[in-house]
Amino acid sequence: MKKILKLITIAILSFTVGVGIGLGAIYSVYESAKVPSIGEITDVRNVDKNLTTSVRQTVRKSRSSVVRVMSLSEDQQVFSSATGTYLTAYGRYFVLTVNHGIQGPCELTRIEAADEFVGCVKYIARDPRIDYAIIEIEKLSTCTPLKIPHDLAKRKQDFAIMTPVYYTGFPNGTGPLTIDGRVVGYMGGDFIYIKSYAWSGSSGAGVFSGSGKLMGYVLALDVGYTEFGVDVLEDIVFVVPITSVRWNSLLQE
Prior knowledge:
The protein has 253 residues and is of the alpha+beta class. The chain folds into 2 domains: 59-147, Trypsin-like serine proteases (Thrombin, subunit H, Beta Barrel); 156-244, Thrombin, subunit H, CATH 2.40.10.10. It contains 4 helices and 13 strands. It has helices at 2-33, 38-42, 53-65, 248-252, and strands spanning 66-72, 79-89, 92-97, 109-113, 116-127, 132-137, 146-147, 164-169, 177-187, 191-195, 206-209, 214-226, 229-241. A 6-stranded antiparallel barrel has the order 1-2-3-6-5-4. A hairpin with a 4-residue loop joins strand 5 and strand 6. The radius of gyration is 25 Å and the shape is globular. The mean pLDDT is 86.
């Protein structure tokens, strides 16, 4: 009798394990055959798993903090679209962008992030020489702000030659597009050259080092003389180092 019970128990266990394996295989096939939704594809966390952990985190940080800055002139004749980086400090929220992307007063400037629009509260700082603007805005629900000063690059390695860098922007109004590059040179203490790609609309995009720290922002493309005359060098991008921004303007506010 004991032998019969033992055989029955073994048979039941074998059947249970077999069913479990079978169901697992069916689920695995189902998952592999399932078509991802648009939301899953465009999710900021959908980053190539073959990248290193630190690079994946940097790309996600870049994509989750990027915004589009739209500004209209007071006479409503000039419109501009630039890129910005969403920041937080002292319980308030800001956008760092380029000054040349601001065409009019605060009330004619809007910030867009993932189909969410918020208004400008006020201009905190506008520097035409270094070409940056800090705008206070309302809190965004679809973005993750960088923490100032925690997320600012502080090590010289973040600015070193051949350091990989990443930024997300809206070139030619398209995007957000995430683009990589490398530091290739300097222009004194004013600008950093990176070998990458940019176009109109990318200006103001926050540039991150591989360590995930904000090391600068896109300013412009290089322009040089060729055998065909003056031309835009689309793969050489001017970046303003983040050390040039006077962050004490936030403290003074």
